[in-house]
Design goal:
The protein has two helices and four strands. The model has no long low-confidence stretch (mean pLDDT 97). The protein has a single domain, classed as Translation Initiation Factor IF3. By secondary structure, the chain is α+β, with helices and mostly antiparallel strands. The protein is globular, with a radius of gyration of 11 Å. The longest helix is centred in the middle third of the chain and has 12 residues. It has a four-stranded mixed β-sheet with strand order 1-2-4-3, with helices on one face.
């Protein structure tokens, strides 16, 4: 069962660094405290998303699996 997110970004098929670029462009669409899910098939996203969170002062809230088996990375907006 997936954690409910305020915004879900479908980044399947996008290669590094496009998933984190999309995250950066769209995180402002959720309120502070809101959760963004990034569904990304590129294996680099497993390191890119947590690194982006550290650099941008956001919280990396973990990894899940989307219903189709694609990794789903959770980011909480802190600012």
């Amino acid at each position: 069962m997936s954690t409910p997110a305020d915004l879900e970004l479908d980044c399947r098929g996008m290669l590094c660094p496009l998933p984190v670029i999309e995250l950066g462009k769209r995180i402002g669409e959720v309120a502070v405290g809101g959760l963004v899910a990034v569904v990304a098939s590129d294996v680099a996203a497993r390191t890119d998303v947590p690194a982006w969170c550290r650099m941008r002062g956001q919280e990396y809230a973990g990894e899940e699996t989307a219903p189709d088996g694609t990794p789903r990375y959770l980011v909480r907006r802190l600012s």
